[in-house]
Every structure is written in structure tokens, then in C-alpha cells.
Amino acid sequence: MTADGLLLRRPRPSDAALVHRGTHDPLVREFLQAVVPHRDTAAAERWLAEVPPLLWRTGRAAYFTVEAVETVKAVEAVADPEAGPGDGELIGWAELVNIDPEGESAEVAVWLLPEHRRLRTAKAALRLVCRFGFERLGLGRIDAYAAADNMPSQLTGAAIGFRRAGYRPGAFRSSRTHRLHDAVYATLVPEDLC
Ligand SMILES: CC(C)(COP(=O)(O)OP(=O)(O)OC[C@H]1O[C@@H](n2cnc3c(N)ncnc32)[C@H](O)[C@@H]1OP(=O)(O)O)[C@@H](O)C(=O)NCCC(=O)NCCS
Q: Where residue 126 sits, what CATH number does that domain have?
């Protein structure tokens, strides 16, 4: 899917440098649970070849690479699946996890490489991955858990229509320090996406 100069596509082994950097980023490791810092790009490449395709196949999670592309290139890449990655700059990652087909729900998370933060790009990336969930997976609700001290994440969600739905003390463990974070729980339904 593409919008706002971004292309959301399935990850490929050639995205290893992005994934290696992202999984070593202190904020990604602080604010996402169960992030495994790959030893090197070869390890990230092996992980990319095996894990995301398996999760996609089994319907348990949908992982995406986020690329910054010019609109024309993005449209071409979507129209022609053989066309390659869209020739864009790899800037981040988005995922729908805990996909529940019966409850028609999933949980979303997004990270961007540090040099692509504070540019309002996160909203566009989050909007795209939520659109994928609603339009392609038929979800009726997408949940997000942001650490209480992760304001950029909470503000990004609120900006595209997530509504605060609760507060969960000790909801998840930092991948970096293993300390428990309290989380703000927010939820999005298709009618609210903006
Ligand atoms: C969460 C993340 C994707 C947000 O992306 P971003 O590019 O930093 O977001 P933006 O710059 O668009 O900022 C979003 C909002 O937070 C605000 N903000 C940014 N940094 C902030 C900070 N340190 N303190 C308070 N507010 C901040 C921005 O002003 C903006 O609000 P506004 O639109 O009302 O002005 C990015 O910070 C990231 O990758 N973080 C590490 C991984 C992570 O925490 N992922 C989310 C897990 S749930």
C-alpha cells in the first residue's frame, strides 16, 4: 500500500541493514517488547528470510518494511510485484501482531530510524498500516499499547484517530532494560481513522 510518499510492503532479506539498525536502537528496544538485537546483518537476513514469511503464512502477524518513495515509483511498485522494492529509502518498520480473526482485531506497532523521527512521517506510516488492517484484513478494531512515558507514540496514535481506552500498570517489559512499563491502551475503529 502506498500514500503520503510512503510505501508499506512485505519485508525482504535485503532489508537486513534496516532491521539490524532498528533492533539495536535504544528507543525501539526500550518501547517494544521482545525485540531481539540481531548480531549482524547476516543474522538479520536469515531472520527476515524465515520469520516474517512464516507469520504472514500462518496469519499470526503482518510485518512490513516502510519505504520513503516518490509517489510515481510507489504506484509502479504496487502495480508490478516484480518491480522490486520501490527504489525508496528504507526508513522503518510497521507490524500488526496478535491478529485475531474471530475478534477481527490486532495490535499495531511502528518504529522509524532516528533520522526519520520528528518529521511527522510516523503518522503516515501508522495510518497506512492501520488501513491495511481494516481494508485488506477486514479488521474491526486495532489496539495500541504505548509506554506511559512514550509521548511521541501516544501523540502519533491520537493524531490518526486512536482513542484512549485504558491504563495498564506494568503492561510490558522493555527489551533493553527488562523493566516493566506502564502502558496507555488506545484503540482505533475504521470510522475514526483520519
Ligand atoms: C514512536 C515513533 C514512531 C513516533 O515517530 P516520530 O517521528 O518521532 O513522531 P513525530 O515527530 O511525528 O511526533 C509525534 C508527536 O509527538 C511529539 N513529540 C515528538 N517527540 C517528542 C518528545 N520527545 N516529547 C514529547 N512530544 C514529542 C511531536 O511534537 C508530535 O506531536 P504533534 O504532532 O502534536 O506536534 C518514533 O518516535 C519511534 O520510532 N520511536 C521508537 C520506537 C517506538 O517507541 N515505537 C512505538 C512503540 S508503541
A: 3.40.630.30
pLDDT string in tens for the chain (194-residue length):
999 999 999 999 999 999 999 999 999 999 999 898 999 999 999 999 999 999 999 999 999 999 999 755 555 555 555 555 567 999 999 999 999 999 999 999 999 999 999 998 999 999 999 999 999 999 999 999 999 999 999 999 999 999 999 999 999 999 999 999 999 999 999 999 99
Q: For a substitution probing ligand 1, which of 118, 150, 185 has the most ligand atoms within 8 Å of its CB?
A: 118
Pocket test for ligand 1, best of 21, 107, 155 (most atoms within 8 A of CB): 155
Give the ligand 1 atom nearest the CA of 92.
39
- Domains contained in the chain, number: 1
Residue type present at position 21: R
Residues 6+ apart with CB under 8 A from 29: 23, 35, 37, 174, 175, 176
Q: Whose CA is closest to 67, among 121, 29, 114?
A: 121
